[in-house]
Fold each of these.
Amino acid sequence: MAEKALKTSVFTWEGTDRKGGKVKGELSGQSPSLIRAQLRKQGITPGKVRKKSIPLFGGGKKITPMDIALFTRQMATMMKAGVPLLQSFDIIGEGFENQNMRKLVDEIKQEVAAGNSYAASLRKKPRYFDDLYCNLVDSGEQSGSLETLLDRIATYKEKTEALKAKIKKAMTYPIAVILVAIIVSAILLIKVVPQFESVFHGFGAELPAFTMMVVGLSRWLQEWWYVTFAAMFAIAFLFKHVHQHSERLRDSLDRALLKMPIVGGILYKSALARYARTLSTTFAAGVPLVDALGSVAGAAGNVVFRNAVMKIRDEVSSGVQLNFSMRGTGVFPAMAVQMAAIGEESGALDEMLDKLASFYEAEVDNMVDNLTTLMEPLIMAVLGVLVGGLIIAMYLPIFQLGGVIG
């Protein structure tokens, strides 16, 4: 019954302000009567108050990591401005157009209002707030510097998501173009090539081998196109399922991706940036280095770095310096090891790691831009081979016929 009493919904309302002007909007609350009371406190005379209808298909947009990053930044801003925690939730929640995000903020507010700490309230939403996030908030609450920690978490989330967006940008463009090329080629084989084939029958001459191969591929695709596409979807679905449930496959894929030309370099440097950014954020928050390394291992995003960080943590816990442990793994470049050594000697490890993260983030940005520039002529070549090859195969008999007639 207590859970039901705390359940909130989004209500649309209409009313009049102190000057008699008509106003309307949306508010989250437990009942229409509480919404009316809230509006009266704001000097609004409520009229219609209705529960907002849920869309027929789905319950609103999915909550993305960028939504969480924005929420964190706004919370940091509110706390720095001296706005009380519960009031901050109300202000921020109303600013989100995503209904699911509004609901999430309101549920966190209800937990805090019930007497739970902010960190404990976030821990009840592990889908959106991982252990690293919750531990940092907990450290901020205990040390009395929550606004500072929220600012650091917001910066960390923004930098991390920006880095992920760059990696996706590098991968999405060539994949999208190649998919379009495959679709165009399939349409040509299914719809256009049969038209040429009917013309070729009237020639009464033997067709070139290349043309025969394309005509044979067209016939096969016309007959079995649905099987081909079904097999492609089945393979993609099976791979996704196995990838989610097989740690061995994920680890093998992580290792293979790091060895790929060009793309491997981008992924390697992005992992270095993530390592440095996460360790800098946690260490600056006052988390002991051994515990911070445990958080870094979970946020590594690649099995090679995860194993390396776990090895570093074990060595650091036994008294070995961080830079010596990093060098011993054979994973980190000399620059990262030297920066860590300087940071340890000067007592400014978090600052040096932050500079290291910024350096590798800039490196990734440049490499992504270079990759995009490099991929454009390569993609044009692929399109030329696929589409141009089909066209040449169709016109080759016509050219040969013209030579015979001439």
Amino acid sequence: MRTAFPFKTLSLALLVAGIGCSTLPAAHAADIKLGAAEALTGPAAKYGVAIKNGLTLAADEVNAKGGVNGNKLVLVIEDEQGKKEEAINVFKKLIFQDKVLMVFGPTLSNSAFAADPIAVASKVVVFGTSNTAEGISAMGPTIFRNSVMEADVLPVTTKAAVKQYGIKKVAIIYGNDDAFTKNGYDVFKATLEAQKIPVTATETYAKGDVDFKAQMTKIKATNPDAIVCSCLVEEAAGIILQTRTLGMKQPFIGGNGLNSPKLFEIAKDAAEGTVLGSPWSAENLTPANKAFITAYKAKFGSDPDQFAAQAYDAVHIVADALKNVKLSGALDKDRQALRDALPAVKIDGATGAFAFRRAAAKDGKESGYDAEQEAIVNVGKGGKFVLLK
């Protein structure tokens, strides 16, 4: 017998199928509503749309197999535009108006720092699939993420790049007005110090900048062996292109903000040799990843990326947790039950073996959970990222 509870579908901005649906399916008596706040428009849409696709694919797969304990997953997806203020508004809508069981997102770490406290105060699980800045999960016990922190990935990436290219000294450029890029810089700086790699120059830019020649000319004068770039993908592509026009041939080392097909769409051959770390690679030929890639291509007609893979795994992680939850229909109780069930979930997903670990506490607050997962180092070759061997 199915348990009846009030997760009825409202007139939504988005359902599993996509944006602006004019015809909605009839509400299911036992629909489990899962919210998602993602950047579907604006500069961060290159990440947010891939995340939406990953969430959608996984929810469809779960539902095709009968749902969770006979109950269907319904995604309520809203566009937070990659903006802090929009993320706050979307979180409020999903939690208080749509009354979702939990929320995936938001897309950027900047937005997570702004919006996640709303979920914490409401005792609602918020699940980040792309937030890697340090300190996010320390904000409260209902914050979870399967996006591996830059602090876990960048030391591995840097060590591999140094070995690959025989690097003795580097220069750094980073965005100084974004939580993700600033945290990436902090991690790179500490990593380079620990690995005794001198920094010849450090330059910054602001989000939305398109002219980086002044910064790169200064870097060129210091003659580094490589350029460390803690950047989002569009700025990174512009930096790489302008570096090449200055006659600079140094390889780039980056964080997961560069891990998008957009890098090669914009920078093309100039991005060859770029090294980055990630929990996911298309060349990881495990059965779970092969199945994910095949299904993604069949549904969306394009190759998936890291952000789609992490979102896909996130839905399966939540579905696994829900298998051990007896939903009562009392929303507050069910939200707490999901939060209690999530930490024990372990899966072998598209991104490989995954488990949660408790985040370090901060300012005496009870913390949430980070990803426990190995980093994979990739290098740009032939217009895509492949495993660095």
